[in-house]
Amino acid sequence: MSVVKMENAVKNYKVGKVEVPALRGLTLSIEKGEFTAIAGPSGSGKTTLLNLFGCLDKPTSGKVFIEEHDIITLNPDQLADVRNHHIGFIFQSFNLIPVLTAFENVEFPLVLLNELPAHRKTRVMEMLESVGIGDLAGRRPGEMSGGQQQRVAIARALVKHPDYVLADEPTANIDTKTGQEILDLMREMNQKHKTTFIFSTHDPKVMRFARRLIMIRDGQIESDERQ
Amino acid sequence: MFKIALRNIFRNKRRSVLTGLSIAVAVMIAVYLWSLISGIMDDLFDNMIRLNYGHVRILNTDYVKRERLLPLEANIKDYQAVARLADADRNVTLTVGRIKFGVLLEYKGKNKPVFGTGIVPENESPISHLDQKIVEGRMIEMGKEEMNLGASLARELGLKLGDTLTVVTQTAYGSITAMNLKIVGIFSYGVQSMDKTTFFIPLDRAQKLLDLENSATEIFIFIKDKNKGPEVAKEIRAKLDLAYPGKYMAKAWQEQELLYFYMVIARNVYAGLYFLVLFLASFTILNTMFMSVLERTKEIGMMKALGMKNRQVMGIVMLEALLIGTIASFIGAIWGSGIAYYLATRGLDFTATFETMGTINFPISSVYHALFSWGIVFFGFCMGILFSVAAAVPPALRAAKMEPTESLKEI
């Protein structure tokens, strides 16, 4: 069963008066529990693809389905609801809220979901323990290393048990060793919680780590292999 | 959300403090300025009522048309009978007849146009508080040819207690008349229009001087509740129309055009000033919130990516402005109330300035006292918050419009 799919999705951006195509009729389906890497050179359309899968943007033409909802029909509030309920995000530069502690950052999506405080506390602590930073709950992002911050980001993405997690070059801003740990952690979470992961990368080591590797070039799928 | 907003304020402490400071100063200025202007206005209206208009004033209808010329021939004959009509009204506490006339006061070669007022001295105390304003000598007495003179006027003409001067003027019938009057008391109201241009003489002497036997030019009526002025004036007008059709009329202090004119001008000027100060200060909030929102483009994008809705994003920005605005307005209101309290108890003395300004023809006191009221302080506090929040609307809208894709723009 697919958690998210796109059919013949086209996305053009306007740069001045010129229309620049970013995706040229892409059809792709991501199945539940997959650990998928989307790779390709700069400008190949990875970010655009993630934006569409993340309900952050709408295609110029074609369709994007999340849980059978065509996102083109949804208004900004409904898109926010879809993101809130179904999608977890991990960003390249962690993007934690600097004024909140690790605990509060992980708690944030649950606050948006109006979960009860007691319930939130248990879930957040469980999640922080499971990504291995239970003891850092009270620290703010500025007081943590890059690897630790990315662990917080992973916990934040997973705490609401999303249908799938989108990770935008999750290891780009950390050293190789920590990057490997982060990938191991994502894989562990994928297996433990059966969470679907879709991540973009142009690091060959990360590509090798994926169970499914989709290569994109010039807004089209160049190859799609399950390893 | 509250936690995020509160902590965002402390993110750039110096900026928040400076923004807060400008709001606080604006609220402070608004509060003490309003207190001061309210105090000055209250004092001005109080003086106008006590010295120029009474709560309700009965006049000859012809006199109303040419009041500036003080037309003595348009007087109230047998004024006591007319006053008795008003006395019958249950709201009326006091009626007094007065004669106001213009003279050229001359002494040792110096002369000055001034206003004389014929009064019943024993009736004057509750109205003009003349007894309390005598700084030298005593009040005039009925039947005696004596006068009470304004302190500044006495100084200007070099007159002192015990001096006698000749007052030359025209009677109600236009013939020249004169009377020797002895200065028995000098008064000081702290109001230049009084102290510099006015003297009082007993009403019966004024009647004799001006050939106005048993007449007055105006009857001041004081009532229990001054806010009921127009109602009482209406009742009295009805009685006057019945007894003296078309001859006399009654006007409440609220119906005095000049007074009303001052009130409107004063209110508008002040309201303009009040809101201008707050408006200018609110620009700092606008600026600060814009900077803060633009700095957080990525973060706001991320929050929206995580599912935060536009109105929630707006809410955070507005909440930040509300927090800064509330704290700053509270501090500003305290400062403002401190200054207002000081100005209410000590006052601002402008006597020296007024002395050099020449004649001012409305009864404004030379020492300004603020009106201290918690209502004014509270209103200032609320306005400070309102302006802060209103100024945060454009940056909040900007934040709400930010695209969640911003958070992914770095591949």
TrEMBL record, chain A:
PROSITE patterns: ABC_TRANSPORTER_1 (PS00211), ABC_TRANSPORTER_2 (PS50893). One of its GO terms (cellular component) is plasma membrane. The keyword Transport applies. One of its GO terms (molecular function) is transmembrane transporter activity. Residues 4-227 form the ABC transporter domain. InterPro entries: AAA+_ATPase, ABC_transporter-like_ATP-bd, ABC_transporter-like_CS, ABC_transpr_LolD-like, MacB-like_ATP-bd, P-loop_NTPase. Keywords: ATP-binding, Nucleotide-binding, Transport. This is ABC transporter. It comes from candidate division WOR-1 bacterium RIFOXYC12_FULL_54_18. The lineage of its organism: Bacteria, Bacillati, Saganbacteria.
Automatic annotation (TrEMBL), chain B:
Residues 273-404 form the ABC3 transporter permease C-terminal domain. One of its GO terms (biological process) is lipoprotein localization to outer membrane. InterPro entries: ABC3_permease_C, Lipoprotein-release_system, MacB_PCD. It is a multi-pass membrane protein. The chain crosses the membrane at residues 21-41, 273-294, 315-344, 371-393. Residues 16-238 form the MacB-like periplasmic core domain. Keywords: Cell membrane, Membrane, Transmembrane, Transmembrane helix. One of its GO terms (cellular component) is plasma membrane protein complex. The keyword Metal-binding does not apply. Belongs to the ABC-4 integral membrane protein family. LolC/E subfamily. It is found in: Cell membrane. Pfam families: FtsX, MacB_PCD. It comes from candidate division WOR-1 bacterium RIFOXYC12_FULL_54_18. This is ABC transporter permease. It comes from the Bacteria.
